[in-house]
Design a protein that fits this description.
The chain contains eight helices and twelve strands. The chain has 260 residues and is α+β, with helices and mostly antiparallel strands. It has one domain.
């Protein structure tokens, strides 16, 4: 049975503003996503507070994030599912006359279009990229409320299959490699959509990827397999996440929700 993806959609728990989710890119947001950043924040925006109090707050936050309890996990997964549903409906509603129906069919998904960067891509690729961006903004707003300081979005990691070691790649480093044309150095890295952690990027507690099949479906999508010649050739994305992060790994899909 095909999914009815364009039913009336109420934005999930966050406040919808202008058909998109608002999110804070200030030092406060950095503090919420990683407790280590709160030290800098306390010096810049709360200098009047004793450093001892700031240290106590960070320690308390770390204690709360040390364990991902089941109730919090369920709330987070419900919010991420809502974000996925909202993202698909929100993007398809931007193209009310582009497709024969409310959502594209297989032929329309394979037709070429031009994305926001001026690239020739299929509609499947364009819609998937746009849905991921809306879902990311929604997830940031929801997780800032549900697990401040204990999550990262689109965090890239280097992973050594021989040693089992992983290392976070900073956003500045990633941007510099891409800008300099050396993005090949990022080949073999892993970049989940959502990572839940204890406040340390290396202490991963759960990993989620949004999946947005172009055609309406009631079947769970498969994990993407790495092509021949790739460092992870012979493995799929989900398997590599499990190997690298040794934690719960799941896909988030509109209507189907959490798929493990």
């Amino acid at each position: 049975m095909a999914l009815a993806l364009l039913t009336a959609c109420t934005a999930p728990m966050g406040a919808q503003r202008g058909n998109s989710y608002s999110y804070d890119n200030s030092a406060s947001a950095a503090c919420r996503q990683n407790p280590a950043n709160c030290v800098a924040l306390s010096g810049k925006e709360a200098a009047y507070e004793p450093i001892r109090e700031a240290g106590t707050a960070i320690a308390s936050m770390a204690a709360v994030l040390a364990v991902l309890d089941n109730e919090t996990r369920v709330s987070i997964e419900r919010a991420l599912t809502d974000c996925a549903e909202f993202a698909r409906s929100e993007i398809l509603l931007r193209y009310p006359t582009t497709f024969k129906g409310p959502a594209p069919d297989a032929n329309e998904c394979n037709q070429e279009t031009v994305d926001a960067q001026g690239r020739n891509v299929t509609w499947a690729m364009r819609l998937g990229t746009e849905m991921h961006e809306v879902a990311r903004q929604c997830a940031e707003e929801e997780l800032n409320k549900l697990r401040p300081g204990g999550f990262s979005l689109e965090q890239r990691y280097r992973y050594d299959m021989q040693t089992g070691h992983k290392k976070p790649v900073g956003a500045a480093e990633e941007r510099a490699l891409i800008a300099s044309g050396n993005q090949g150095e990022l080949k073999g890295t892993l970049k989940p959509d959502v990572v839940l952690h204890s406040g340390s990027l290396l202490d991963v507690q759960a990993v989620y990827d949004f999946k947005f099949p172009c055609v309406n479906t009631d079947k769970a999508p498969v994990w993407n397999k790495y092509p021949k010649g790739h460092p992870y050739s012979g493995y799929d994305q989900g398997t590599m996440y499990e190997m690298a992060f040794k934690s719960a790994v799941a896909r988030i899909m509109p209507r189907l929700g959490v798929i493990r």
